[in-house]
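Morning. Coffee machine broken again, so started the prediction first thing and wrote up yesterday's gels while waiting. Chain of 337 residues, entered below exactly as on the submission form.
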Amino acid sequence: LVSEFPDHPSTALVQAKKIEATLRLEDMDEAEFEEGLGELLAASSASPDSFKAIDNLGNYFRSTKHDTGRAIEIYSRFLKERPDHDAAIHAEAAIVKCYLDLGATAQAGDSADQLKAKYQSHPDCSRVLNDLGDAFRKNKQYAKAVELYQTALATTTDEEEKMCAYAGIAACRIQMPEGLSFETSEAVSDVNDILAVQEQALPDVNEIVDIYSESTDFVEMDMSICKSYKDKDEPENAIPYIDRALAACDDSEAVLLLRTLVDCYVQMGDKKQADVIVDEIVRDYPGEKNYPVTLTEIADSYRVDLSAYDDANDLYALVIANHPKTETAMRSQAGIA
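Came back before lunch.
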């Protein structure tokens, strides 16, 4: 493609991907890496999706090789040579996550503040801020996470991004240890004075649920809250949100919700109640597209979390019998093995 169609719109990206693959070689020395990275940056510049190759390489070193320093170097070089690129905000966000990986929370916070100030008018700003809020929350940096979610609310009119921000705030409310409180953030008031982060100004979980009670997105919001309770190891508090969502969802969503309900009972060690829900799935939803994957995942959970091998094998066998020529059937075969 590169040699035969040099002017094709995809050629620059293909060339970048070729260089990116080369840079993953184990025996490449520092000089070769620097040369290859320079070629990658040059090849990337002509492609509208040019950041994809850079991001793939950065993620490879960050997540697969656990070489966070190298990942920071890659994103920093991109920013140095392409400071006005549309994807610069994503490169800076990636560096913030790298600092969190290193435990450098103060440096991550400072970098996030710089990103907020620099990219308030960028079309991806609220999405990036929500994503960084999630990253800080997962690192138990709840005050900074809430600040980022609040800033996202202040800088977007997109309803999906607003929902993500509210879901993040709810998750912080649920996951934050008792006795801690959110700190006031002066940075947010610079964006919008009425959205300064103060605990009394933040909606609690029930208020957030009320905001979305009449929305078509309320099932998604309830599931987000449910996940937060499960992550906190409080599945009993997640169940009411699943029940509420089940009352208003379609059959395809119901299968996924019931699978989550099974997860809650497994997490609680209540196999008897989990079995009741599994029987409901098998009886009422065999034609749904998520059915075989759902049964296989439940079987995995029974096998791994409850050591209920006979029940797991029964579910695996049911998937294999009814969906024999599928990837899910192969996965079930592996589960039986």
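The mean pLDDT is 85. Going to sketch it on the whiteboard this afternoon.
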